[in-house]
Structure formats: C-alpha cells, structure tokens
User: Fold this.
Amino acid sequence: MPPEQLGEVLALMGDSVDNIPGVPGIGPKTAAQLIQQYGDVETVLAHAEEIAKPKLRQSLIDHADNARMSRELVRLVCESPLPEPLDSLEMKGIPPEPLRAFLEEQGFKSLLARLAGNSQVQAPSASAQPVQREVRPEPKIDRTSYETVTSLEALDRWIAEAVKSGLVAVDTETDGFDCVTAKLVGISLATECGKACYVPLEHGGHDLLFERPEQIPAATALARLKPLLEDPAILKIGHNFKFDWIVLDRRGICVAPVDDSLVMSFNLDAGGLNSHSMDDLAKKHLDHDCLTYKEVCGTGQKQIKFNQVPLDRATEYAAEDADVTLRLWTRFRTRLPHERVTRVYEMVDRPLVPVVARMEREGVKVDREELTKLSREFSIQIVALEERICGEAGCSFTIGSTQQLGEILFNQMGLKGGRKGKSGTWSTDVNELERLSREGVPIASLVLEWRQLTKLRSTYTDALQQQINRETGRVHTSYSLSGAQTGRLSSTEPNLQNIPIRTEIGRRIRDAFVAEPGFVMLAADYSQIELRLAAHMAEVPQLKQAFAEGADIHNLTAQELFGAVNRDTRASAKTINFAILYGISRWGLAGRLGVTAEEAQMIIDRYFERFPGIQNYIADTLGKVRETGFTTTLFGRKTHFPSIRAKNQGERQGAERAAINAPIQGTSADIIKRAMVRMGPALEREGLGAVRMLMQVHDELVFEVPQDAVEAASAVIRRVMETAAEPAVSLSVPLGVDIGTGPNWGAAH
DNA sequence: GAAGTCACG
DNA sequence: ACGTACGTGACTTCA
Assistant:
C-alpha cells in the first residue's frame, strides 16, 4: 500500500486517532469503510452528499473543514517516526502549544497521549507502528530514460504502476495555450522520481507534411486512462493543474483528487519567489534546467505546434515535466506541514483549483453588438476631442504620447507648476491634468476626457470583442492562483477584474456582460470586508460595534475624527479608513487629503486615539514580519517580505506598508475563496445545480441564475458567503453581503 | 522591453 | 528625507 493511503488508513483505523479526525460520531470502523470505498479523507468529504445515512452525511458535511485540517495533521504525524514527544516538534519549527490545543479540541486522545512527551507510551497496536519508509536515493534527471508509450500493453503497464504507487504526476500537452480551445495532443505520466513516460495521442498531421507516427488512438488511450484519472484512491499531481483539468474535462474526464505543485509553491513561498513556474522551481529546488518550450517548438515564425514535434523529442520534454512535477511535489509536501501552511493549502487553495477551472471553462456571455455600438460611439467623441485638443495646442501631435503632451503643456504653452518624474519627463498623469483643469486650462480636461474614452475603447470595447471565443461564444478569462502575493486571484486575457464601474460612461461596458435567455445575472459582493476584518484583527471595539449595529462606518469615522458628518468630512473619513488598510504615512495621507503633513499626522494621531487597537495591530504586524520575514492571515496564509530588511529606506518602508495590508487583504481573499469552494456543493444540496458561478472580482462573485431560481439561489449564496470563515475562523464582526440581479452585469449592481 | 497611464478591488 | 497609500493587468509610445 502506498505511503499516502497507508498513513490515512493507519490514522483512521488504528489507534492513533479515535474517529475521522474532527468529525464527531464517526468511529474507526465506519471510517475504515469510507476510506476503503473512497480512498482518502478528501474524497470521502467530496462525496459526502452521496452517503445514504442522513446522520453520517450531515456530520461529514458540517465538519468537512475540521476533517481537512486534521488530514494534514495526520499526514504530518504519520511521516514522523512515532512515538515522538510533542515538544520535539519545536525542532521542526512547529510550535507544540497550538498543536496540543488543536489535538485536544479535536479529540485526538490517544495521539495526544503518544505525543505527550512520554516516549514510553507504546502504540496500542502493531498497525500503528512507525511507518518505515524506504529511503532510496533520488536518481538524477535523465531525459533519455523516459518511455514513449505507443501500445496499449505499455499504457496498461504504466497505469498499473500508478495504481501501485498510489499517485501519479500528470501533464498534458496541447497544440495551444488557450485551454478552452486547445487540442489535447499527448499526456505524460510520472509514477516515481525518474520514472516517467509520454503517451502521444495526436502527433503528426493529416496533411502530407507531417506523417502520423504510430500511437494509440486518442479515444482508446483516454478510455483506458479515465478510470485512473478519476480514481479517488489515486492522487494526481500537476503543476498548474487548472490548465490540464480543463483540457481533460473537455474530453469527459473529471480528474480527482488533485495536488498542485504550483499552488503548493505559492503557499510556501508567496512573496519570496518572483516566479513559481516549473522551469524556475526546477532550477531553484532541483538545480536542473528543464528543456524549454522554445527549445522544443522554436519561436516566432518558425514556431511549430507540439503535435508536430518528433516523438522522441516530445517525450523528453513532456515526460521531464511530469518527472520534475513529481520531484517538486515530494519536496513541497514535507515542507507544507513543517512550515505550517497545510491549513491554507488544504482548506483554501487546493480545493479551489477545480472550482476556478470550472469557472474558466464556463466563461461569460458578452454581447458583441453592444460593444460594437459603444466602440462607434466612443470613436465619434474621440475624433471630436482630438480636433479641439489640437486647436487648443495650436498644432497637431500624438496625444497618446506623454512626452509630446508634456512638451506641449509645459514648454510650448508655458503652463506652470509641472513636476518631473524620475526620468526627467513632465508628469501628465490624472492628478496633474486635474490640477490644470481646476486652474481653468481647457486642454487639460479635454485630454482627460480623450484618455478616458480611448482607454475604454482600446482596453474594453475593442479588445473584449476579440476575446469572445469562437466555439463557445463566451469570454473565458484565466485566473492566476499565484498572481497576487497576498493570496488574491488575478485575471488575465482578458482581465475581468478591472471592468469599469466607477464612471457612468465606463459602467455601460458592464451592460454587455449578459445572461443567457432564461437566466439572470446575480452579483453578490461583500460589504466593506477589509474594514470589517481590520476591526476584528485589530480588535477595535468601536468599529466592531458599529459593524454589529449596521452603522455607516465612514460616517462614524467622520464623527469621531472631525466631530461633524457632512459630505466633506465623510469623504475625508473614507480616505483615512482606506489609508489605514494600506499602511498609513503622513505624507501619503497629506497628498490625498490636500493638507500638510503635520495636519495629516494630527489626524492619524486622532484616529489611533479614537480607535485603539489599530496602532497595536500595526506594531505587532511589523514586529512579526521583521522577526520572521513573513505575515500571516487568519487562515495561515503566508506572504514573505524579503525587503523588510532592505538597506534602502524607501524600499523597506514600502515593504512595511505592504506587510500591514497583506494580512487584511489576504484574509479577505481566503474568505471569498472558501465561499467559492463551498458554493457548488451548497447549491447542489438545495437543488440549484443549474446555477453557474462565472466570475470573481476580489470581494464579489457573479452568477448566472435560472430566472425561476433567483430567490432560492440568493438565499444560498448569501448564507455561504456570510458564513464562509466558519468554523475554522470565528470573526467578532458579521460579514455583510449585498446582492443584486438583472439581465446584465451592469443591472445587477 | 521599459515607462507611463489608468481600469478594478 | 521618501512627490509612497495596498494589490493587480492591459494598452500605448518610444528607445
């Protein structure tokens, strides 16, 4: 039996724990049955809905998060030679106290006893003896050792290997980078370090230039691989598996369970590494240079598609990727518990992978005609503006060139008060142009308007049309799980997280994001989530109370700071509340409020005085990040800040501000990610399987909901989002969610 | 490819 | 003394 499962089964059947960890009412016998049936705890939880016995089912559903957390603990404990004194965990960087508290809370009685520092306590049964793992030196990476699988017999042999080892690293090769349309051309597998193969499926072409080499027919090979890839007892490991998951899902294979070495690396080293790409990680952790895609496929005009790569070369590249993925995974999986990031990995990011994959595959419908209409409208206005701008300038020039514009404004027209940036060029950004505009310079406001319209046209109305997928008629963004150091997602090609909303004219672009006939768009967003989290994390009594009472937080701040609530004081208060979240400085605040640094300092002092707790939060956060080099969220997500010790003061202070913000922004990201993970099963449970989750915009989730299910879906969505932190984290402030619906995204706000 | 600008939370 | 609020991605111009 592979160590993965052995650990699980030992832990669950043997005497080291008393039940399915964290799930009351499930004893060893039931646990063993469930494990046998599903393979591992994660899969049991994933299939909890199917379980017939209602009490058992409900218990698993209710305590899934505890079980997930415990699962990693079990993994940790099974990796150590038992019995091991609890205090010795300190040596591995695991603080024993929180662990002891957790074990007690979860009822790990016998495990606790064995870890209690008394190494005389014997394991009660033979089955719970330490897992002796065979120590085999890892072979060097040898590209020539990989096998090209072109016969069913060979494929079956590899599948048997995967079953034997209980895990398999998987990498798919395609003829493009867009996973929603790219064609699968081959799959590589690695079952042990150094033991990898490539299964070509669609190599060669149907034209005369490329002969089709011998390979198993794709449908046949996939039919053989499907049971393995869907086998709940076999762990599939990938690097950025979201891509492969979508490619395989399109071929009718729903891969599970999945580990992702990209996500693991991100959970371990966010902020500490610029890149979590396989090539860079191989260089860093394995001291190995991978074959690059360019080396295999070429670049530019001469670039070929992967299905045109000769099989021997393709095998070297593809099998190496699977081999490297597996090697990275073996390192990361032991680091996760030791560096205390298993909780965020198991509870938040790992289960998110298939959820985000589904969302990307779903896409969102965009009304092309509406965008065309807007593009035309904008173009007419842009042309008119260009004429007036050239009139004001007295000559024709490239308005989009900041160099030329600065030259015209500050040299040719001789306007005063310009400032120059690092490169010695005139600044012409929005602040500068707004200042000129206030001073009555007509060209400034014209350029601002021109910039807004050209931005909307080039980035949104024009570009978005290009992004509509030919096959699906929808726009499929790609979410990066490692994009933002704080733990947020980021969105690319296209970026759906920066669609305009702040101005009336920009907002119209959201009207082009429409629901299918019979559906409506539903947008649900957390209200002031970061301020609420700040109130909780900094333990500010007044803020917590205000959120509990549903008070307007900016008004409250205005009252406390300025003694009066009106438009101006509220606006200032709002600015200051944000400043707090972003790591305040007197100069920054002064610039934003239009006051002197001294006045800004007075306001800051007053804020700290009126909202005690904030100052401590900042001091504690900075103290911890200076000591450890990282910050943590309420879910244990780490962000590293190497610059916190920088010699350069500006760089260091930048890191300090980011470190103050990271736990708040990161916890918010954790919470919405957990809501996303739980949303699918919660909707299913209520018979709302037709509801589609389409987009995530940091504090907002967008759905496409059948018209007749809006009420029911709203209730479920609200409940899931508002309770997303529980039970792992209990907040002292309520989370508020605003929900809107309409025929399009614009109308759903 | 860097710099500047600006769209979002 | 730092013309800095935090976190992103896309587009344009220009070297």
In short: Residues 400, 402-403, 421-423, 425, 427-430, 451-452, 455-456, 459-460, 488, 495-502, 506, 525, 530, 665, 668, 697-700 of chain A lie near DNA strand B (CB under 10 Å from a C1'). The CA atoms of residues 633 and 667 of chain A lie 5 Å apart.
